[in-house]
Amino acid sequence: MTSLEILLKPEHEELRKWAKDFAAREVAPLAEDIDRNDYYPRELVRKMGEYGLLGINAPTEYGGLGLDLLSSVVVGEELAKVSLSAGLLIGVQNGLVGYPLAHFGTPEQKEKFLPRLVKGEIIGCYGLTEPGAGSDAANIQTKAEKVGDSYKINGSKIWISQGFYADVAVIFTRTGTVEDKAAGMSAFIVEKGTKGFDVGGKLEVMGVRGTGTAELVFSDCVVPSTNMLGSPGDGFLIAMAVLNQGRVGAAAGAIGVAEAALEASVSYSKKRALFNRPLSKLEAIRFLIAEMATRVEAAKLLTYHAAYVSDKGEDFIKEASMAKLFATETAVWASERAIQIHGGIGLSKQLPVERYLRDAKVLDIIEGTSEVQKWIISRELIRD
Question: Where in the chain do CATH 1.20.140.10 domains reside?
Fold first, then answer.
């Protein structure tokens, strides 16, 4: 029995078949259009909701499937094989928005938003990053000032996936002073249509296109105190809890991209001849494919293990960062090698291998860059 078979239960493999079938039937026909035309597939989101994909980890009492993190990893991997953009739509809705609502929201907040998020009736986004605060999340400048029974929010967020189409946003603000750093952060739920809440515009990105990446702008945006997620000062705690989950999700997406690159390379090497021999007979190509497969398997083990540790209720900060670091860098590396194996056609849009590289590079940066992951891992290992 392999390590993967120990970590995965029969129900996980059944879930994989289910997700793979959905991806082939519903996602594959849209994958090229999503990427090439930066097309946000609203009807696909609704189908994902119907199939339960948007609420994999959400509590059953709010319409979710109530499954573990390892289940969402398996689903994310299969969706990303076909379209990382489609996988990200699930990741944002289920993880970045659904997770904080389910774990930190009041019963009223959960009842109002979770069922509709799970069904795909409304779109959610997660607003942490700012023009001057990415890796240093505690340095956010968006301010929420207490005014009677409400808070007045001023500031902006950047690179927000689904931001252009979102009906509801989980936003992180500063309710304390700048000197308070992490201790002065709080989170709010802000709905579309709230006066002073505007979308600055859809942003062009090189990869993971079709996800409605946008800037969010808050100008004297007043929200009731009941829209606060958790308590005053809980913002950093909530953000980091979400990011740990998100890093495992990013690793799952990276595995899917790397597997797609590997499968494309194996298939092409058998078809393409060079000097009257299939590429697959050339030692240089065989060795590349062998190393690709080895790195993919290692990335799987790290990612599945991180999800497994989380599902046991244990601290998985180090495991999440290790998985994110290795899996995303593997996806970039494997995609580059896939293009090399394909040669000139790998550089063209006739095949999706060039998309794999663009998508993989995005994963290498979002949810904390590789450098941030190395810092976190070293911090966990060297307690100085």
Answer: 236-381
119-177 per-position pLDDT tens digit: 999 999 999 999 888 788 888 999 999 999 999 999 999 999 999 999 999 999 999 88
According to DSSP H, which parts of the chain are helical? 3-7, 10-22, 28-36, 42-50, 69-82, 84-90, 98-104, 107-119, 235-271, 283-311, 317-342, 353-363, 370-381
Local confidence band at 254 (pLDDT 50, 70, 90 cut-offs): very high
Q: Which of 78, 215, 319, 367 is catalytic?
A: 367
Identify the CATH assignment for 236-381 out of 3.40.50.10190, 1.20.140.10, 3.40.190.80, 1.10.8.60: 1.20.140.10
- How far apart CA 99 and CA 101 sit, in angstroms, is 5
pTM, to two decimals: 0.93
Share above pLDDT 70 across residues of the chain, in percent, rounded to a whole number:
98
Report whether 78 contacts 141 (CB < 8 A).
no
367 is known as an active-site residue: yes
